[in-house]
Queue: 4 jobs
Job 1
Amino acid sequence: MAAEDTYLTREGEDELRRELRQLIETRRPALAQKLKDAAAQGDLKENADYHDAKEQLGFIEGRVQHIENILQTAVIVEEGGASDEVQIGSTVIIQEEGTDDNEEYRIVGSAEANPRERKISQKSPIGSALLGKNKGNKITVKTPDGNIRFEIVDIR
């Protein structure tokens, strides 16, 4: 696993393929029609609908290219179920030293990281500190607010 590789779980690959399909089959054609309709209104210099549709279409084209690039170059991580060691695809339960609260995170590649869904990148401070560790290990994570110590409670 080279540091510059992009990693995806099967779930992450499926999500990106769904998004790509939706962009290509639904959003792109709808915006192309909106652009065509706006262009038919005449003077394009002051046509806000035309400029808006053109800008949105540009964003969609950029996202399509980005997703296609990820899917072409990503290393797909096969999840083999429970492991004794934290790896990409693992769900890890950790407990901050001095608290009784457990936190659960799924370690994923940076292309599918979403902290709101508790999916953290293997390149994030916590993700990189957890990789390769085992249940019961204590780790220290450097954060902007200082060092935080965690214990790995469970790995799924």
Job 2
Amino acid sequence: MLVTLKEILQIAEEKKIAVGAFNAPNLESLLAILDAAQELGLPVVIQAAQCHENLTPVSVMGPIMVAHAKKASVPVCVHLDHGETLDFVEKVLDLGFTSVMLDGSTLPYEENVRLVKEAVKLARAAGASVEAELGSMGRRESGGGDGTGEQDDTKIYTDPVQAGEFVRETGIDALACSFGTTHGIYLTAPKLDFGVVEKVRKETGGIPVVMHGGSGVSSEDFRRAVAAGVRKINYFTYMDKAAGAGLTAYLESVKEGMPVFFTDAAVMATAAMKENVKAAMRVFAGLA
């Protein structure tokens, strides 16, 4: 069933779990995510990231995501991940998305507030929820970086007091915080400051905190993040990597001289993504 992010986060808050939020830039990833969620009976967020427009445009994937969410047996939110412009926010709302993120985290505070307030107006008119971000996870978020988790002078941890002001000024439903994670592949273990999450929750009156850069974080740290107040965890890189491993396994299974079929490769990649997503969802929900 299609629901808003606010509704999904209410479920997460009641159960003291985090809901998995997975990017679906193609049909294979979408089916893997929804099959995993329905098999586990857990709510889920399916996301389209604006930076993935070069893979499959949201004008193509968006209607498919909304249609599949409506048919699902579990609560599903269709969400814009890292929206960069108000025009794009408006575009996905017109497609039926039930939640949007306007990411102004790399902009000056005042400009971030201004843009997010505009996004909130657009979303409220469409009956949708809004996520925003305060702080920055580093260069990768603004188009560069390697996601290694190494020292990065552009990484800015979220200020809990400022977070309280930001939430009150904008009226958002969820806040993505920077507390030590990094987008992409980790080559070194991240050093997470869960105190940031706890203080943000306190200063904002308990707003659901979103964790970006979740791939590669240990199960133990995921559990600590949830205990601190994280209610949505974005996860894509390792799911995508699992698909690559499934593809490799298929190619290695093809006997020499035999043809390689894309449809067979896609089936194995989808199955690998599904198992990876299920494993992540179990951790986020405290089932593993």
Job 3
Amino acid sequence: MKKSKEKSKKKMWIILGAIAAFLLLQWLFIGYRFSFGPFRSLGDIRMGKLPGNAENYGMQALTQREDSPLAGKKALFLGSSVTYGAASLREGIPEYFGVRLGCDVTKEAVSGTTLVDDANSSYVHRLLANTDPSMDYSLVVVQLSTNDATQKKPLGEISESRSLADFDTHAVTGAMEYIIAYAQETWNCPVVFYTGSRYDSAEYAAMVQRLMELQAKWGIGVLDLWTSDAFNAISDEERALYMNDNIHPTKAGYREWWCPEMEAQLMDYLNSIG
């Protein structure tokens, strides 16, 4: 009986140790990737300690542009962790543009998701399932997801068609074309994709190149943070403030680095199409 109790107690301590190790792993590495329950809380505690997430970098301190073409209008932001604000306490690109352009933002962002439609959380699936076709959107902004590159999803080929039924949404290119065609047909509004800043990924570089080719076909806007050497030439000190890792900005990274450049490019595009 005594040995049985000792075994049970040992088993209990092993289980508790495993739970503690798992929670520590969340704290150190992946807590920010979750958007629910205690995992998000762990991520918030960790991210809240980053200098780039200090309160003074919040988006509400921004002021609205007087010449905003989107003032009082609605904009849809579709993406994954970078759009969600996984390393910035969920305050990033949609929140920045909501204030700067005075628009009503719908944020459809889930961390870890892909453009490629092979899961119920993909961009394509959520575009169809979670957005309202009757909504009067004046702009759709789509993140060129790094998850497709990390997971080495097939790039695919550009279709000769403009019909939704003809796009291979199980490849990156077909998924992007489907999203563009659906948004244009459903809301008859400008569609803009944005890239991340440069990091070491041949797969993502190929996706950026393909996006430029799709721009020529569809006339979409591209907010390109990838190509410019000057934009990407920041100091080590700036990078430590602006980025949590190679992909995910902090609040400071969005507000001080990414978003002002995205805003300038977006305004140029919107003004060019009238």
Job 4
Amino acid sequence: MTLRERLEWIFRMALLLFILSSVAFLSALTAMRFAIQGREVAIPDVVGKSAVQARQILQGRRVGMKVEDRIYNSLPVDTVVRQSPPPNMRVKTGQYAHVVLSLGPQKATIPELKDRSVRAAQVELLRGAMQLGEVSSVYLPGSVPDTVTQQDPAPGTTDITSPHVNLLVALGPRPPAFVMPELTGLPAGEAQARLGAAGLKVSKLTPETVSGLSSGTVAGQTPPRGQRVDPGTTIELQIAE
């Protein structure tokens, strides 16, 4: 075989190898694309379906179902009122559709909950087939701790769509507050005495090796100087050994 023939053979082999590699790459790319598309489904429309039917329909598309809320609605009890994602949106299999179910037509009247404890308010709501919603707390002068001061919706409301009632609960009067003093460098006994005079108490003393400080003096503190503290604040001091 002459040199020219050898070069031509090498060129043909290289060209054939390039073509085969390109075909293999395109085939793999096409297969990957079909595999990815195969894992996606269009979300069906389940609004107006019962919860059981909706779950079966979604499971047929390999999509789960989560109940996010229940509201009063003209649709029968346990019928899907809203869904997310919306119908026809494509999602990956294994994901969840979030639905809101109907409690049926609203027949409840919001009870008066003011001045009740949170527990008593919750029991009263359950008696009326309602639920405790968000509970927020606030310090109020002259208030009794753990009592309801405001509610939403207001008492006597009948045109409601949700069975949840939100409460604002009193924590009682705000406890006295102080500004954390600088204690670093003070003897441990003096530092504790200063805190005690303000109604504060050291929760933890931690020995620490620190150069430049006499043994038994405060080397560090938590919270730091200037932070707002009250009698319930956890105070820690690091004491030089």
